[in-house]
Amino acid sequence: MEGVTSEKPSYSYETNWPAYSLAWSSRLEQRFRLAVGSCIENATNFIQILELNEETKRLECVAEAEHQFPPTKLMWRPDDGSDQSGKPDLLASSSTTLNLWKVEDGQMKCVAKLANTRTQKGQSAHLPPLTSFDWSTINHHKLGASSVDTTCTIWNLEKQKIETQLIAHDKAVYDIAFSQ
User: What is the per-residue pLDDT across 56-98, written as a single tens digit (0 to 9) for each?
Assistant: First the structure.
């Protein structure tokens, strides 16, 4: 057709810091919601939640939280196809710990900070960085994490406990993925 353009809208957002990690929400009612993590060369970094303002057609920051070290990965809980309206959204982030965030009513609250080690709470230990993680789309209470300490760890998020930990690599593990 002559004269008809099929231009797709384009949106931009500028952070106050270098952006490193990004994750789009998988919830159908939150199609234009994303999390962005900073990469600042000190311990205090940030995660921002951005949403599209339908009136202004601009991405806006609706929530922000401090994050210890740059988040190596961000990921929203997978959508299981059921009605999620009214339920809080969960976001996972990684650095030296695996962090779970509840995102609700314009606020981010850290609901779990999981160390990739079997040491007891209260014991101080150097925590090696987590390089990546993946959330199971089949069992939403399972999340796998990879680390520079040569381990792959499967977490039970409901119990906030390590389900199993594979220590069979000679070098750092940089990625992990669940299969369908």
Answer: 989 999 999 999 999 999 999 988 766 666 667 899 999 999 9
Rg (CA), the chain: 18
- Please give the domain boundaries of the chain with CATH numbers for all domains: 19-167 (2.130.10.10)
CA distances from 154 to 45, 57, 120 (A): 26, 40, 17
**Torsion, Cα of 86, 87, 89, 92 (10° steps):** 170
Please say whether the beta carbons of 90 and 101 come within 8 A: yes
Asked whether residue 5 carries a pLDDT value surpassing 70, the answer given is no
Place of tokens 């008809």: 4
The pair of structure tokens assigned to 108 is: 């981010």
Residues 38 and 19: beta-carbon distance below 8 Å: yes
